[in-house]
Amino acid sequence: MKSKIFLALAIVSLGAYSCVSPKKLQEKEDKIAQLTGAYAELQGKLRDAEDALGKSKSEEDKASEKAKNLQSSVEDLNKQVEYLRANNNVVLGQLKDLSVLSGSQAESIKKSLDNIGSKDAYIQGLQNSIARKDSINMNLVMNLKGAIGDLSDGDINVKIDKGVVYVDISDKLLFKSGSFEITPKAKTVLGKVAKVLAAQPSIEFMVEGHTDSKQLIGNSNGIEDNWDLSVKRATTVVRILQETYSIDPKRMTAAGRSEYLPLVENNTAENRARNRRTRIVILPQLDQFFNLLEKK
Questions:
Q1: What pLDDT is recorded for position 134?
Q2: Alpha-carbon gap, residue 224 to 83, rounded angstroms
Q3: Secondary structure (H, E, C), the chain
Q4: DSSP label at 281?
Q5: How is 9-51 classified by DSSP, letter by letter?
Q6: pTM score over 0.85
Q7: Dist CA 36 CA 2 (whole Å)
């Protein structure tokens, strides 16, 4: 289709050459070139949108597969419990017939077998808690990506790793170089994240500051070193979330990781830019699992 359009334009241009001045002809050719460039740009944006959609679908499929595997494990465990229950009476009868076992010993074994039911409920509770946590995390990630949607993955990235949700924000969105002074765009970015966090009041999180390995020159703006810079950046973000967006301070922890937890090696300018980031870590709700363990 594109080639046919260009051919038609070329024929029209040649036919009109004799009655159009060189200046107007040049203007028309410039317009054609401009439209061709715009068309190529739109094609590129369409491919980027299709790639983003495919990535989101892949993450959704992985979550669904994980849920299926978890359900399969629960079903296998239930089958084992039912098998033990079904053979309970048979085993007890056989044991009582053995002269080496007394009545009290058989009764003790019976009580042990009776505990299978409570163990089953305990395991089921743990499985339900894990499934609920995974569901909450996936919902949280999708809400964060929806709120942040207009920013590229190079500037802000949301992911789940080993059951923990991470939000990485590049320093160029939040801070001026070598400083903990906030940029004008920072409050817009943090406002989008705060909106999702505010909707989940039971979730606690930690704000981590990360730097590259490049050392600060002198005592820059009262900053002693990368440790100091990473901590000050984390506390700056926490204060904004508290004071501007009314996030409960009891839900937040501020921490500095300096240069010691890089995403990639600090061997190029591009890699150092990736390592300079602020990370929001959604903390797992371990108290729920501890409560289950106490009820064991």
A1: 62
A2: 65
A3: CHHHHHHHHHHHHHHCHHHCCHHHHHHHHHHHHHHHHHHHHHHHHHHHHHHHHHHHHHHHHHHHHHHHHHHHHHHHHHHHHHHHHHCHHHHHHHHHCCCCCCHHHHHHHHHHHHHHHHHHHHHHHHHHHHHHHHHHHHHHHHHHHHHHCCCCCCCEEEEEECCEEEEEEEHHHHECCCCCCECCCHHHHHHHHHHHHHCCCCCCEEEEEECCCCCCCCCECCECCHHHHHHHHHHHHHHHHHHCCCCCHHHEEEEEEECCCCCCCCCCHHHHHHHCEEEEEECCCHHHHHHHHHCC
A4: E
A5: HHHHHHHTGGGS-HHHHHHHHHHHHHHHHHHHHHHHHHHHHHH
A6: no
A7: 9
Tell me the C-alpha distance between 169 and 147, whole Å. Answer: 14
Look up tokens 């039912």; give the residue.
82
Give residue 64's pLDDT: 72
Instruction: Enumerate residue ranges in the chain where pLDDT < 50.
Output: 2, 6, 16-18, 99, 289-290, 292
